[in-house]
Amino acid sequence: MTTLGSVWPLFDLRLTTPRLELRPIRDEDIPAAVDAARSGIHEPGKSPFSNPWTGVPGEELGTNMARWYWRCRAECSPESWTLLLGIWHEGEFIGCQDVGARDFAQLKTVTTGSWLKQSVQGRGLGKEMRAAVVLWAFDWLGAEVAESEAAAWNEASLGVSRSLGYELNGTTRKAWGPQIETVQHVRLTPNTFKRPDWQLQVEGHEAAAKFLEVTDHEAGYGPSRRSASPTRAMRRSPNDRSGAPGGV
Question: What's phi and psi for 15, nearest 5 deg?
């Protein structure tokens, strides 16, 4: 029987940490994502996003979010992709962690971004979800660099970056909506990554990697990469749900 995952394999990708479940946002998840965003992400008038998408009237927010999710799927290709991973904690949708790349086969570089509803901020969940996608990128996709950025005043985001071993990588001056911001760029490699003391559990990786045209050779599945850290990721069968929490 044909399933949605068989025609769009990325939907079957699932990353599980001690407290969180990360998986691509499906259409049925969009209402929960909109509700989480509407509940509040940041203080009014102080957007941490390069595109101030939370500043639109409430009736437009859901439509714009749905368009963004559909656009990222439609434009996904091995040459340029962005995965929007919903974050579930104790069965509740609480935010989104994205990871993307351009020309990954040549550059081996990913970029990340995220948001969390305000009511769950300050618990270390932002660090945990970033660590999850970085582990997946380094240990499963074979990435050599992970990059991110934040407004220079965004200490919460930059604090997460520092705690994981990111190094400062210069600043730029950019127009973020109507505001001019000094943007701090940060960069992480497998050698500087401060790995968590937990293991990442991964489901659906093989099909996702094939879809993105990341080969086993590129991903470095050999002993040298996997034995480099005692917290390396663990393979799981797509049908093995043992130990998976209900959500972020």
Answer: -115, 130
